[in-house]
């Protein structure tokens, strides 16, 4: 079965950089510079990546930790709509502040952002000006306890949030991917997600 490709339009609500290597927290800034083959300038996730405990497929094949691998987390993006769903699931009295998930982009208007398939291309423009930055989606960003710990600091009156976050954010944690073409992105830009044709792979 094959599904046709299509596109959706949304808006960049915030751009952020996680410059503190000791914290997942990312901070808003006027614009971010995307560098192909590297990542977001100044971000703690940019640059060379080495295999760690998450690379189960590599280890099952016989590889060991520490080898240099592709960095498919050169950027991360979350959805305003999905953040609202996570906040509701956690019974938070107000929205999750931007940056708690270590994201580089906060987007609105892209339905089911976390479910965008691998190979989806993200293009950006401001009015009639086309941004040169182009991003390629790799995968859903799987939730972990780290963002929950940051959220907990923002809501100290509500106990247990760090433990609650991973379950509440399943399927709503956003996406990660690589930078296809270098350029700048800033708040207020239009984002166009071009979803590729999808073929379901199965053996008869």
Automatic annotation (TrEMBL):
<feature type="domain" description="MOSC">
    <location>
        <begin position="27"/>
        <end position="194"/>
    </location>
</feature>
<dbReference type="InterPro" id="IPR005302">
    <property type="entry name" value="MoCF_Sase_C"/>
</dbReference>
<dbReference type="GO" id="GO:0030170">
    <property type="term" value="F:pyridoxal phosphate binding"/>
</dbReference>
<dbReference type="Pfam" id="PF03473">
    <property type="entry name" value="MOSC"/>
</dbReference>
<protein>
    <recommendedName>
        <fullName>MOSC domain-containing protein</fullName>
    </recommendedName>
</protein>
<dbReference type="GO" id="GO:0030151">
    <property type="term" value="F:molybdenum ion binding"/>
</dbReference>
<dbReference type="InterPro" id="IPR052716">
    <property type="entry name" value="MOSC_domain"/>
</dbReference>
<dbReference type="InterPro" id="IPR011037">
    <property type="entry name" value="Pyrv_Knase-like_insert_dom_sf"/>
</dbReference>
<dbReference type="GO" id="GO:0003824">
    <property type="term" value="F:catalytic activity"/>
</dbReference>
